[in-house]
Amino acid sequence: MSTSLAFIYSGFFVIALAFTLTINALLLKFAKTLGIRNYQDSVIRWSSEAKPALGGISFFIVFLFSFISLIFLQDETSAISGLRMIGVLAAVSLGFLVGLYDDAYNTRPWLKFAGQVLCGILLILSGTHIQFFSNEWLNYLLTLFWVVGIMNSINMLDNMDGISSVVSTGVLLAILGIILAAGDFSNPMIIILIGGLASLAGFLHYNWNPSTMYMGDTGSQFLGILLASLGIIFFWNAAGNPDELGRMPRVIMVAMAFALPLIDTTTVFYKRISKGGNPFVGGKDHTTHHLSYLGLSDRQVAVFFLVFSMSSAALTILINSLGKAWKPMYSYIFIAYLSALFLFLFIVALRPPPESTKN
Q: pLDDT above 90 covers what percent of the chain?
């Protein structure tokens, strides 16, 4: 990487971080009822204290700032003018609006679901869809399932201070590592990733336990569609070179990068459906909650997720770097790691919670 690029990227991160810290501080200072919902009527939260759910606003502002910055940092042939980038911008913007509307009016589940499906359709129409099957319609269906699934997974994982933030940071770092490892230092996505990492770091200053701010659905829906879009581009489609990795390595890479949200969502769905409940109704039955029931503090739970998010990010970069040198043995090793992590959290989540926490 040239010195000038390193300077630009470093400077952009510092500016984005400072902006995020400032905008969140201002939102906290002037917010009274804005972004504060009475969750007790509709959503069961781990913390009963009402706090401003404004973090997603800074996410989106920094994202737009990053996107606009590409116009000045790239030449006329930049991908910024491409249909796919415009599609990502449209889908992410819609995801933000869906979350913002839900935070403001507590929308019905079907309306949020419709918005999530529309986000997936926007990606497909603009050329960003999973390339896995020979049948394009199967690829489109898988893309819609992926988008809706990740948007809901990130939303469901936002149940304790710092959790969704550190998990999202791990995914973005994995993508950034893949780009840098390939030597693609002029990739326009680097600016988007740096902006995302800066906004998450600035938000964590207020969201780390004990938090003073939540990200709300505004933040979780924004992060969900952004991560789903980037996951399609860099994991499912191997950054536009799916032939470099076979199907099994790509599936393992996807599972590794999104291990924690996928494990949590799978576990919660299994538990609620097996008891005849609605999997979309909130509860204190997530993997994060059960780690707390074991005796970990909220901060220790966040550190646990931070450690495994960073580990999964590093392993994701390793999987991508193996490329055509992939051997069957590698599949067994990585699947064993994912299985061990899943079984640990799944078994922990099957333990009955203390009587005082049951709903």
A: 58
